[in-house]
Amino acid sequence: CYCCVSVELTYHTCCACTVDVCCCDTLDDNKAADVHVLTDCEDHVLQLSFNCEVSVIRKSLQSFNVSGLVGDDARMVVAEALCHVGERKKAHEMLSGLAKDSARREIRIRAGYVLGFSEMEDSATHTSGVTRVRALLRANPDDRTSELAAMSFADRLLKAGDAAGAEDEYRRYFEAFPSAAMNASVIERRGQALYMLERHSEAVGLFARAEQLVEKQDDKSQMAYLQANAYLSEGKFVDAAASFERSASYGGKDRNRSLYSQADALERSGDVARASEIYEGLATADGLWGQKANLRLVSIVARNGRLGESIDRYTKILESPGALPSEDVT
Asked: Using an 8 Å Cβ cutoff, are 92 and 118 in contact?
């Protein structure tokens, strides 16, 4: 055994498979690998714990002869492990073979998805990966792996900056799997895609829906904050201020950020008096938002002709611990 000196050799009663089991119980759970090496049948397959460190998985892969594996399940798991540790060339060879030649439809589909997603991670093969996954989704809408693959595909397109492609895939995902209407995380990500496409009013609706679904106060605050930013992008400063205020009402670590943003939206809407009240409340707070609120008050009192007060506030900012960099003050 690669991680300890004890190896338990067992035989399954239903076949002649010999399984090497790592029985080391001295490592942390996230470092010990549960490795079952199988070469004789498809009922028992090689398994790797993907919560292990990459080095542990690498050692696991070195403990047997990959080319000697028998069974598509075993080859599939090994190929996924190779992707996980960055051995993409070898993994792609195995996945291509499985996607083309496996006698089992579910293995062909799964291998195609894993291969396509791996290709999407490399700029040189990203386009071919997108084409591969999209074709699989269209051809196999009812396969049991398609729901997860469809969501993952949309997420990966969004991460790659393809907002239009991501929105199209999210739309198809919601149409194909109605239960997704209760998945706040996916709803939020679709909202992000719409926001990137400058379809702000639609994004607001999705962020509002996600705010209703999430349970944690911090999550509700973030959803309200996203709605406010979408309103800002439309020039709807009063609506933005109301959403920022609701975001702040949930409390949490970002409350001062939401209050500052509320004041900024109110100031831009022309309600300088109410904005000044909020800035004054923040001015005594420690950290970034207190400093930024003081700067805005400097600007407001200066515009009102109270230059002496403006200079006094400005001087206090410069003399305070952790003052903002000079370019921000300017």
From this structure: yes
Closest CA to 186 of 196, 195, 173: 173
The sign one gets for the Cα dihedral 64, 68, 73, 75 is positive
Question: Residue 73: its pLDDT value, please?
Answer: 77
> Would you mind telling me the total number of residues written for the chain in this entry?
330
The predicted model scores a pTM of: 0.76
Q: What is the DSSP letter of 285?
A: S
Summarised one tens digit per residue, pLDDT across range 144-183 is 888 899 999 999 999 999 999 999 999 999 999 998 899 9
Reference 234, options 208, 183, 269; nearest CA is: 269
Q: Please report how the helices 184-196 and 217-233 are oriented relative to each other, as an axis angle in degrees rounded to 10.
A: 20
b/e code 38-47 from CB counts within 10 Å (16+ = b): bbebeebbbb
Q: How far apart are CA 210 and CA 320, in angstroms?
A: 40
